[in-house]
Amino acid sequence: MEKDFYGDLRLGILGGGQLGRMLIQEAINLNISVSVLDPDRDAPCKKLCDRFEAGSLIDFDTVYKFGKQVDMLTIEIEKVNVDALEKLEEEGVVVFPQARVIRLIQDKGLQKQFFKQNDIPTAPFQLISSKDALKDLTIPFPYIQKLRKDGYDGKGVHKIADEADLANAFEAPSLIEQWVAFEKEIAVIVARNDKGDVSTFPMVEMEFNAEVNLVEFLISPSILPFEIQERAEQLAIKIAEDLQIVGLLAVEMFLTPDGNILVNELAPRPHNSGHHTIEGNYTSQFAQHLRAIFNLPLGNTAARSNAVMINLLGEANYEGLAIYEGLEEVLAEEGVYIHLYGKKFTKPFRKMGHVTIVNEDREKAVTLARKVQATIKVKA
Amino acid sequence: MEKDFYGDLRLGILGGGQLGRMLIQEAINLNISVSVLDPDRDAPCKKLCDRFEAGSLIDFDTVYKFGKQVDMLTIEIEKVNVDALEKLEEEGVVVFPQARVIRLIQDKGLQKQFFKQNDIPTAPFQLISSKDALKDLTIPFPYIQKLRKDGYDGKGVHKIADEADLANAFEAPSLIEQWVAFEKEIAVIVARNDKGDVSTFPMVEMEFNAEVNLVEFLISPSILPFEIQERAEQLAIKIAEDLQIVGLLAVEMFLTPDGNILVNELAPRPHNSGHHTIEGNYTSQFAQHLRAIFNLPLGNTAARSNAVMINLLGEANYEGLAIYEGLEEVLAEEGVYIHLYGKKFTKPFRKMGHVTIVNEDREKAVTLARKVQATIKVKA
């Protein structure tokens, strides 16, 4: 690419949510000119980018036309029109992550087939095209049904425990996965630039809110045995290299009670499991994504201290203009970093922000995180 | 104030330069709605704020009208119309720092009188209203002549060494200061909120570029004797309390060879001597300024590690569209944080950005800072 990243080069981001917002906060430091496409006129990125366009991310023409106005495209959400991206790539727009990578990851079925083809450990699965096929499954109850496409933030995922649950099954092309009794959910974010440099962030441990299937609590760095961390990080590197991705790749994994690591899902972009890196690591995931797509040297990913991240979700039963309770109380604590996402309206379990707690003492960080979680409430 | 800082409250910033830009980067985390007034249509804040208005900061009507559209005003530059701010205060707009504080600090003569009245140690001085009065000075050569108003970034300051230099003296109301043979230039940033909570950042040491009278190199935290650091921090607290300021106050001081601390100048806002706090301290000066003006608990100011900050100044002899040499080379080093200010055009010694280097080892941070300084060049 001829243009300097800090100069005339125009970066387009597909999606204008909180991931785009935090990416822009980092892009400001490098004078990067950012255009954003998002269907929501009040998207979190709206007022922070050089140019904002309200429009569909899945409409071919909209994405194509948006892409023709920039030099490089990246994403903050996978659900985008990949045909448009492929055409843009053919016409010389740099698309990182590459259209073929997004196409593969968009479809949980293709993702699983990719794991299988590349000897990447993952839970046993079958692909079905309709609900009807559930009766012929070889995978026993309980299992997970995931829509192949368009699931996000816990939506499009069902646990099917028995015959009775079949009534609730999705009537759409799905991935059926054997239920894994995992001990821990772990994640590694890896970055790869176009020179082929690859770098992982230290492995993190997550706790999920089972009710809504969202990450609720994340601890960095992990204190699981070094051997497990290394295995998880090597797996992430292998996947990044097998994909030849340019940009960030978040690799979510299960650690099973017998010490196996099974890859669950990929996200080819900054990810909720990397928000703690803003204050917790020398390089943030957002800075790393920019370094990767601009083919710059990758930054030092080491942890600066223990960091615990909690998501701020809209309280159940509240919908409307967001009110944040407890912010002042939380700001009185040391090492607490509040990130609100600029969403005017809350609804139950909507991701409204996150808080990172850093502390030299891991237990103190965890205790404080629990307190923050109990203190801040997003109501309406 | 009735409105929540993350909600309907509108914050106005007078000035849209790099200090406003970094303040906005932090304000994003708290959903703060920011309006900016700056005479330059391409000011660094232009594309990052909710509302940008191009207009004079020293014109009464422009500042007044801008202020009437917000709930709270703050500044990132002192040279603003204070009469308008006083009227806005009377009419219920919250102005932090207060108009009277800005008025006092705008005028280096009033600043010095304030030091004298409050027993704050400072170099001996005289105030003169015209060049003519220089012949009747009781202060011996060499001395410093500073314009009482509107000096900035080393402009409006002359050293007058002898009779021959008198020809170059400013013909305007000035402050004449006895030349201080100082050993170190040191600075402390202090914050005070409306509850009266006061908190200082650890003292830093600076190195100046004598040619252009700009901070070129800053080291945090200081390793001067604890007693000196404590004295400097206590002085900063005393000044903040004497002024009853709400917001940040940067206190620049000289440490003399015999161990005295003399207060040089004040800035009632985020300051170049606090840029390292973004990565070097638990709370950044920008986050702290927001906490102070919104009357929130002040954050932990402790250093997270050694940090060295260098300014990126436009190279001498280059003027035009800015080109940054050496960025990639510098990004290959660990713990290096580049901040470009979004200024399209460079000119000799213009502040175009800064770089902070953090390292557990102070000497390594200093060595790397020297390397960064020799590597990055802002040309045209």
Automatic annotation (TrEMBL), chains A, B:
Homodimer. This is N5-carboxyaminoimidazole ribonucleotide synthase. Its EC number is 6.3.4.18. Belongs to the PurK/PurT family. It comes from Olivibacter jilunii. Pathway: Purine metabolism; IMP biosynthesis via de novo pathway; 5-amino-1-(5-phospho-D-ribosyl)imidazole-4-carboxylate from 5-amino-1-(5-phospho-D-ribosyl)imidazole (N5-CAIR route): step 1/2. SUPFAM superfamilies: Glutathione synthetase ATP-binding domain-like (SSF56059), PreATP-grasp domain (SSF52440), Rudiment single hybrid motif (SSF51246). ATP binds at residues 108, 146, 177-180, 185, 264-265. Catalyzes the ATP-dependent conversion of 5-aminoimidazole ribonucleotide (AIR) and HCO(3)- to N5-carboxyaminoimidazole ribonucleotide (N5-CAIR). The keyword Cell cycle does not apply. It catalyses: 5-amino-1-(5-phospho-beta-D-ribosyl)imidazole + hydrogencarbonate + ATP = 5-carboxyamino-1-(5-phospho-D-ribosyl)imidazole + ADP + phosphate + 2 H(+). Residues 112-294 form the ATP-grasp domain. Keywords: ATP-binding, Ligase, Nucleotide-binding, Purine biosynthesis. InterPro entries: ATP-grasp, ATP-grasp_carboxylate-amine, ATP_grasp_subdomain_1, PreATP-grasp_dom_sf, PurK, PurK_C, PurT/PurK_preATP-grasp, Rudment_hybrid_motif. GO terms for molecular function: 5-(carboxyamino)imidazole ribonucleotide synthase activity. The keyword Ligase applies.
